[in-house]
Write a structure and sequence with these properties.
With about 270 residues, this protein is mainly α. The protein has helices at about 1-20, 25-45, 55-70, 80-100, 105-125, 130-150, 160-180, 190-215, 220-225, 230-240, 245-269. It has one domain (about 1-269). About 75% of the residues lie in helices and about 0% in strands.
Amino acid sequence: MTVAALVGFAANSLLCRAALGADAIDAASFTAIRIGAGALTLVVLARGSFRGAGSWPSGAALFAYAAAFSFAYLRLTTATGALILFGTVQTAMIGWSVVRGARPRVLEWIGIAIAFGGLITLLLPGLATPDPIGAALMAIAGVAWGIYSLRGRGVARPLAATADNFVRAVPLAALLLVAIPIAGGHVSVEGAVLAASSGALASGVGYSLWYAALPALGAVRAAVVQLSVPLLATAGGAAILGEALTLPLAIATVAILGGIGLSVLAKNR
């Protein structure tokens, strides 16, 4: 379930970047269609039995992540956005766990430091520094996703909870379309299909699998394994969208994977 969820996370980056990069849809419409399609799919899968399984704070965190994610990808490449997103997720989830009393082992801390160092490599001056506004928006998305993941650790019915959270996020997405007038806002058939695919498959099904896997992972391991997503997004961005593979990005990817390996091995031991 973890592997399938991580593939879904990477697919979200690819689908969003493909839609916005090609100017096939505006960011607000992408967010609204994504959340709406995810809610519809999950309600069907849950057979209508979902009411009360989620919560408004989780629904709000889901919406905040999706909205900031979409607007960030107007300014970032697939791989850069994924690196910033999951680097922030790692920091938020591990930081909260430490505050609540978790004590990672020494090798876990070393792995975390190496993985996070890979993210810093991307942001060093002169090394393909990302757009600051895009980076800030993606960091906000990362914090929101960290909150959403932390709130999902004790969920008894993952599919129902995800369905309820998506349904609660629908009115917030509708308000986004009204509250933020987008000059030249538009939705093409291609853009709508990409947004619906992101919502129904990569988000709806993927997030349900993630909620189901969270209890067995724990907060620290859940934070660290998500740093494999940038590698999947990088490979997909290069193979599907024709994005360049740069040296800083390669160094960051190697560091992140090495850090994950150390952390997981330390946890298993």
